[in-house]
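Consider the subject:
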Amino acid sequence: MDGLSVVASIIGVIQLAGSIVKLCGGYIQDVKDARADIIALRQAINSLVSVLDNPNSGLSIKSVLKDDILTCLLTLEALEGKVDMGKGKEAMKKLGLRAVKWPLKRVEVKRVMGDIERYKSSFYLSLQADQMVLITDVAGTTSLIDQNMDLQKLPVAHEAEFDSYMDQHEEECLEGTRTDLQQQIATWAASPQGNCIFWLSGMAGTGKSTISRTVALSFKQNKQL
């Protein structure tokens, strides 16, 4: 079932639901012994429609479970066929006859209500899944914005920038030294899930700047800068 078919099925469910609610309303005054069942069934159907036909719900077509919407449509079509007495009911009213019988037994009403509740839960879970994806996307974007804003506030010593004129004669790590730390930094830089900053801390003169220059040169050679 493609997207257009899903849309058509959703519209069909909403229209059928409205028709059934109206038909059920016609029984309420005439069938006293089943009035509670009729009211409960109408409420269940209206509750289903409120999920599918709410413009503020954010339920996307792609998230609706296609099998469930089709099965729901078939269930409502069968239900409409049972409760729609058509012209026969109107003819009985014109003759003054009020022996209108509710066509569903209580066990049937309960079964249909159970099916409707299952469909509603399925559609509602689809809505929640959509909202969680949206929330995750927004949270990720917000986090990235916050990181960029924080980084923009950091003071910059332009003379200390890598490859600057003032930095051209500074030393780098001797070959074979500080290899473990360099490997840690290389692993961090290659990780898409890594933190935005790798913080080198230590007392003055312990080689932080030397390590930074060495790693930066390696990044430049590997075209990672």
Notes: The CA atoms of residues 34 and 102 lie 7 Å apart. The mean pLDDT is 74. The two ends are 47 Å apart (CA to CA).
